[in-house]
What does this fold into?
Amino acid sequence: MGLTLGALTGCGDRPARWDASTRLPIESVGLSGAVAVADPALDRVMMLSASSELSLANTPLRVGKNIVAIEPSLDRSTLFVLSRGVQPRLHPDDEHPSLTVIDGGVQPKVTARYSLTDPLQGIALDPEGQWAVVHDAGGLVVNPNELIFVNLQDPSSTPVSKTVRSFGGRPERLTFTSELTVPNGPPRRLLIVETERDVSLIDLSDLTRDEVTVLLPKTPSGATGAPAEVAVHDGAAGARIAVRLENDPNVVLLELGQPPAGDARPFKLLVNVADVGGVPSSIAFVQTDGGLRLAALVPTASRATLIDPSSSFPETVRFPRPFSRLTRVTGDLAAQPAGSDVALLWSPSTAGIAFWSLGKTSGTPYRSVDHYDIGIAVAQVTDIPGEQNAHLKLLESAKGAEFYVLDLNQRQSFPMLTQASGFSLSVSPDGERVWALRSGTRSFARILLSTLHPTSLDVERDVLAVYDVARRDQGRAVIALHASEQAGETSLGATVLDALEPDTARSRFFSGLWLGGLP
Amino acid sequence: MSAARWWLAAGFSASLAAAQSPPPPPGAEAPAPGAAEGVVPAGEAPEPAPAAPSMAPAAPEPAPVSPEPSPEQRAAPAPAAPGPAAERPAVVAPLPPAEPPAWQLWIGMRTSFIKDSGFDPFSTDDTFAGGGLGASWAFSLREAWSLGWTLAYEGGGAAGTARGASTLLNTHRLTSGPELRYHVLPRLYVFARPSVGAQYQAASLEEGSTGVTLEATAWRFAFDGSAGAALAALDLRGPRVPLMFWVVADGGYGITQRMSLSLKPPEDSRAPARTSALELGQLSASGPFFRFAIAGTF
It folds into this structure.
């Protein structure tokens, strides 16, 4: 009778969302005003944002089914969520693949959703925020050279599919250029597509135009040349692109030259190959007192080769150490040299760094390199966003228990010691603080970049990740995520502190974040 | 005894006697045709008889069954006959007309159907089971109707998981109210029972990131409106104990004031300092219910 009554009252099972599993690993992304935590079991993203009272708002946002990629924009103001949809689609109402765009501010919301025709699993984002390119198809029959262009400036636009002509390769890296000068037409931006054996240039101002593909030369051993890095330069003399090849001393120089008369194409690609005297590990266009050069670091010879792109004439500059990485830092200096660049040299396998002043290159190469012996081999150089502390760089090692704050203006480096290796650093979006965390412990620290004063904080649960986000009252909060696993199910909590004046005696703990939005 | 009481008593007694008395001896006087109807014609109501004793003395011989007892029977029940018990088999005499149950104690189970979304964390379906016990006292009889007052306690629980976190909902419900009965047959009555009271609700969730059990408790106003029937299933009335057992079933709708599911760690727990409440919305434990009970009357 009870069952009968139950049937009469229409009772039934609860919604399946209450039984959705929550498993490790947890994927989270720090945005400008919120922390995004993927909840793939329920096809949603939990957006955690803080208010003035240090309360935590948990805003679950529905995204497409079957999340495959989550990427923040370069400025961390936007989150892109790529979903495969329902595969295979058996019913007309089965969801298509999609790209969801989420505003990562203090009041997160879905700003656009683009329906895609094919389930792709890779996404490349335009640093200028105009384009997203979805690629890397999966399925029984796939076209790996198909790229889907999503115009982020127009939420109502339909994504455009384009297949890159291939000589047997498939896209591996996509690089958006800034606006480049072309001889025949207004400046335009290009998408550089690197495959295992060629490089294609796609005109982003006209996606219907055929791309230009450059088949790379073979290596001295006879193997097919594979691109390893591209460098781009735009100047009054025209735009140039350089391609570094894997295990190849040659560098390919591309010039966007004048097309033949009567040719409607915006440019004609002029290809040149220059030998830098060894296998380069890093390339960059630099301004020297002698003009534009392509700098190629050859760590096996502890030197750099400067190539004049117009003549392919090489110059060499010897280094005291085999530096393998180069970062141009001219724009971050308070006193910028006129007409020439300053580069930071570093290497993950050699301790120390060097400043390379390219204005003094010709004729006095050795005096142009100022070497600084720091205690770590630098594995990563992190920029500081914003203008106030742009002259600072974070130098991290791969395994060490210390990191350095490098002042480019003073050319001083400040060691910051940690208790153990395995920590991670994150810079606040306003560029005023650095957060150091050793994941899985209860301790993390804030370093004020203005004073380099560290503040250690110990919370009551192991920390998975720490994010510095804007608060709704114009202040800032730090959100420390806590995850625990029991019987295969995870729990997610967060501690919220004031990022400007962190005090664990005034923090707040929020639990059960997976349950947000379920009732 | 009023006419209504007599009607009930007569019918009740006849039914019980028919069920308990041995077959009449050969030649025994058969009941008068139509007498089993147990209906007193209008205007022929007998004189009010003195209150029938709840226990009848043992009689040497089974009395003839008569649905309409004679005035003598009503006025003077047969006294116990002397004699050695060993020589005569002990025979239980048909009981005299019995009063409708004045006191009733019951124990039973209650199943509620809660469709509110606030109940979802605690159960995979909408059922909420529990048990309870109660008492009622019939203080007024009028013809086939009787009116009493009930007091009931019911407790229930539901355990579940919410995305892997164990949950528990316990309730304690105390209600009281009138009970109106209509005696369809001597062994069967239907009733309606509105009652009001309060329900204590305790919701908890074992939260992994804090490592403690978060709780929310509240007393809330409660109201039940139900209707059902009771059937006399077992008559254990004896010389000293006027006990009968009934099967009682009723169904209705229970209303419980909404409760905020703002789950907090206990004061003395190991939860991180200043742990904010986990908000799971509100719970309304209202919904239809079905109740099955065994009742004893005396």
